[in-house]
């Protein structure tokens, strides 16, 4: 299996207690079987802490006031402090990394639901590119080769020096999508989804307003955002029709985030762009249920050409 990482990957370091939206809050954290076995073998003082913190039936941590019970008052992980970094279950050890799997090739990137990863990716000046980390040859299936070629063609439509609207239109033309983007319908749909944070509701409502500003100075972060969605979501397409769905998903996700930012009534500039992108990712990309529903919603748009 040949391995690739994105050029931003090495810049990442968890900001731990400086993080405002810690990944140790609000989500259900599932523990892999190997870690459960390891935790059951722990002896000494930490044993009872583990026993009360873990629901061994559902293989997850019992959240306390919505937080992982091992997140201490300084927002640091007590598991790492007491048992070392190797004691983390695979969910915690992997986050915020994501992997694109192909037959014979794997790509590792960072998910923007993590505020630090989001900052690194969206403020990067250079194009996002993949770097090979070994000398192995890609042994791809015919469809996987098609996906990579198609993804490259879509990425070639994104010029970081152009406005994000120009790049988005270029992509829509390339995939022959003439449907009208109805923000009221999108807002109604998003309102019905499972919610992680109630502040997201306020942001969804903004979609229905006509934009009050254009945020043209933030074309770079919006173009990086679009590239991130293309890299991540086109890669999991299952057939040719799905390639188009995942492309429209990338375009509409970028448009949603941009329209919310264009309607935000604050002076926080880039900070608002990063926070809106992070919130979208946490609410949609990082909820399996919401992501599937959103893919289905886009599929209907593509089929109806609405
Ligand atoms: S969200 Fe990112 S920066 Fe924050 S605690 Fe998790 S990994 Fe660290």
If you had to describe this structure to a student in words, what would you say it looks like?
The protein has 306 residues and is an alpha+beta fold. It folds into 2 domains: 24-94, no CATH class; 140-304, no CATH class. The protein contains 13 helices and 6 strands. A hairpin with a 2-residue loop joins strand 4 (97-102) and strand 5. Helix 6 packs antiparallel against helix 10, helix 10 packs antiparallel against helix 11 and helix 11 (240-263) crosses helix 12. The protein is globular and about 65 Å long. The two termini are 41 Å apart. The mean pLDDT is 94. It binds iron/sulfur cluster. Iron/sulfur cluster is lined by residues 14-16, 19, 22-23, 95-96, 114-116.
Counting DSSP E segments of at least 2 residues, the number of strands comes to: 6
Bound molecules: iron/sulfur cluster
Largest sheet: 4 strands, mixed
Strand content: 5-15%
Judging from the principal axes of the Cα atoms, what is the shape? globular
Order of helices and strands: EHHEEHHEEHEHHHHHHHH
| Range of helix content | 40-55%
Poorly predicted spans: none
Task: Enumerate how many helices there are, as a single number.
Answer: 13
Mean pLDDT, as a whole number? 94
Distance between the termini: 41 Å
Q: What is the strand arrangement across the widest sheet?
A: 4-5-1-6
Query: How many independent structural domains?
Result: 2
**Rg computed from alpha carbons, rounded to a whole number of angstroms:** 20 Å
């Amino acid at each position: 299996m040949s391995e690739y990482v994105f050029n931003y990957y090495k810049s990442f370091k968890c900001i731990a207690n400086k993080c405002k939206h810690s990944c140790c809050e609000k989500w259900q954290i599932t523990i892999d079987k190997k870690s459960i076995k390891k935790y059951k073998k722990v002896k000494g003082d930490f044993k009872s802490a583990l026993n009360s913190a873990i629901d061994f039936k559902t293989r997850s941590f019992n959240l306390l006031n919505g937080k992982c019970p091992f997140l201490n008052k300084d927002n640091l992980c007590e598991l790492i402090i007491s048992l070392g970094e190797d004691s983390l279950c695979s969910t915690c050890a992997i986050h915020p990394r994501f992997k694109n799997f192909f037959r014979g090739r794997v790509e590792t990137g960072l998910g923007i639901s993590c505020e630090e990863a989001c900052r690194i990716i969206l403020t990067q000046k250079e194009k996002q590119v993949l770097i090979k980390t070994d000398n192995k040859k890609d042994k791809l299936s015919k469809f996987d080769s098609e996906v990579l070629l198609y993804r490259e063609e879509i990425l070639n439509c994104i010029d970081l020096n152009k406005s994000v609207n120009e790049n988005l239109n270029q992509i829509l033309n390339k995939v022959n999508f003439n449907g009208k983007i109805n923000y009221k319908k999108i807002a109604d749909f998003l309102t019905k989804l499972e919610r992680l944070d109630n502040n997201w509701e306020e942001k969804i409502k903004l979609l229905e307003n006509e934009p009050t500003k254009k945020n043209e100075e933030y074309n770079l972060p919006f173009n990086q955002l679009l590239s991130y969605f293309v890299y991540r979501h086109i890669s999991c397409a299952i057939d040719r029709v799905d390639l188009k769905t995942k492309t429209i998903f990338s375009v509409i996700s970028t448009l949603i985030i941009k329209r919310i930012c264009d309607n935000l009534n604050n002076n926080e500039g880039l900070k608002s762009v990063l926070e809106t992108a992070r919130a979208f990712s946490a609410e949609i990309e990082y909820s399996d249920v919401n992501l599937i529903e959103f893919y289905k919603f886009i599929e209907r748009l593509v089929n109806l050409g609405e």
